């Protein structure tokens, strides 16, 4: 199993400031083919404290990914407010939400969302390069050190040539690089064997702990969910159980 130690630096460690996250009266409604509105998410109230490690569980179609996308500002709710550190996110313009995500959020998508033709290092650095014409001094070295700590030794290799488990580690490294205050992961251990799944889960948990970030992870993986401090169970778009350990 690769090591799960996530390297830190003064630059990245200083950036994280986890904050309270709240959802109030949040709903998402879509129109069926005949024009009939169909609710797919209904969250009257949800409070997540800074630094919590929260799992989102439930059957397929329960609204888990919809909830995560609403929290990330990728999907606008039909009603209600998503608030981070006292600021409501969802009324902002798309550009303003993009800037908020780049500043505060690390995302691990279920399909990884890597660029196949780019190298391991370039994929890890990609979000940071949206903010500047040139990579900030030292950040490439931090990306390389982080990748190596996750067992990724061939940093110049195209990610298309990597195994699925290695690609997942690249996605996690990219999300952790700038020590986000809010770490969101959609099925981060899906399709991985038990050993690789445990390694990726350890990287996420240790990365969040090291920087004091809030972690919210969708998962069907009982082993991962057992390591989190709180698990929300969704059914038909509603939270039907909130287990806190």
What this model shows, in words?
This protein has 245 residues and is an alpha/beta fold. The chain has one domain: P-loop containing nucleotide triphosphate hydrolases (Rossmann fold, 3-Layer(aba) Sandwich). Helix content is 33%, strand content 26%. The two termini are 28 Å apart. The N terminus is likely disordered.
Task: Outline the fold blueprint.
Layout: H1 10-13, E1 21-31, E2 37-48, E3 53-57, H2 64-72, E4 79-84, E5 87-88, H3 94-104, E6 105-108, H4 120-129, H5 139-149, H6 164-176, E7 182-186, H7 194-211, E8 214-218, H8 222-225, E9 230-235, E10 238-244
Parallel strand pairs: 3-8, 3-9, 6-7, 7-8
Antiparallel strand pairs: 1-2, 1-4, 4-5, 9-10
Helix pairs in contact: 4-5, 4-6, 6-7
What can be said about this structure in brief?
The chain has 245 residues and is an alpha/beta fold. It has helices at 10-13, 64-72, 94-104, 120-129, 139-149, 164-176, 194-211, 222-225; strands at 21-31, 37-48, 53-57, 79-84, 87-88, 105-108, 182-186, 214-218, 230-235, 238-244. The chain is built from eight helices and ten strands.
Helix amount, in percent?
Answer: 25-40%
Distance between the ends: 28 Å
Strand elements, count: 10
The spatial strand order of the largest sheet comes to 6-7-8-3-9-10
What is Rg? 18 Å
Please state the structural category.
alpha/beta
Approximately how much beta-strand content do the residues carry?
25-35%
Keywords:
6-stranded mixed β-sheet; disordered N terminus; 4-stranded antiparallel β-sheet; 245 residues; Rossmann fold; alpha/beta; globular; 10 strands
């Amino acid at each position: 199993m690769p090591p799960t130690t996530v390297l830190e630096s003064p630059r990245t460690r200083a950036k994280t400031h986890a904050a309270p996250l709240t959802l109030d009266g949040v709903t998402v409604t879509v129109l069926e083919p005949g024009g009939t509105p169909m609710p797919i998410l209904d969250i009257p109230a949800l409070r997540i404290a800074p630094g919590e490690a929260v799992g989102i569980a439930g059957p397929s179609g329960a609204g888990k990914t919809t909830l995560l996308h609403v929290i990330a500002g990728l999907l606008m709710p039909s009603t209600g407010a998503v608030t981070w550190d006292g600021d409501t996110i969802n009324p902002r313009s798309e550009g303003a939400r993009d800037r908020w995500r780049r500043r505060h959020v690390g995302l691990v998508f279920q399909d990884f969302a890597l660029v196949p033709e780019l190298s391991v290092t370039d994929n890890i650095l990609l979000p940071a390069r949206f903010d500047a014409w040139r990579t900030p001094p030292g950040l490439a070295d931090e990306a390389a050190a982080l990748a190596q700590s996750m067992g990724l030794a061939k940093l110049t290799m195209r990610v298309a040539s990597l195994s699925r488990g290695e690609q997942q580690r690249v996605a996690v490294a990219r999300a952790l690089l700038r020590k986000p205050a809010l770490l969101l992961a959609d099925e981060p251990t899906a399709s991985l064997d038990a050993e690789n799944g445990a390694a990726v889960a350890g990287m996420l948990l240790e990365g969040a702990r090291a920087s004091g970030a809030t972690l919210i992870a969708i998962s069907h993986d009982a082993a991962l969910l057992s390591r989190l401090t709180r698990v929300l169970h969704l059914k038909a778009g509603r939270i039907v159980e909130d287990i806190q350990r």
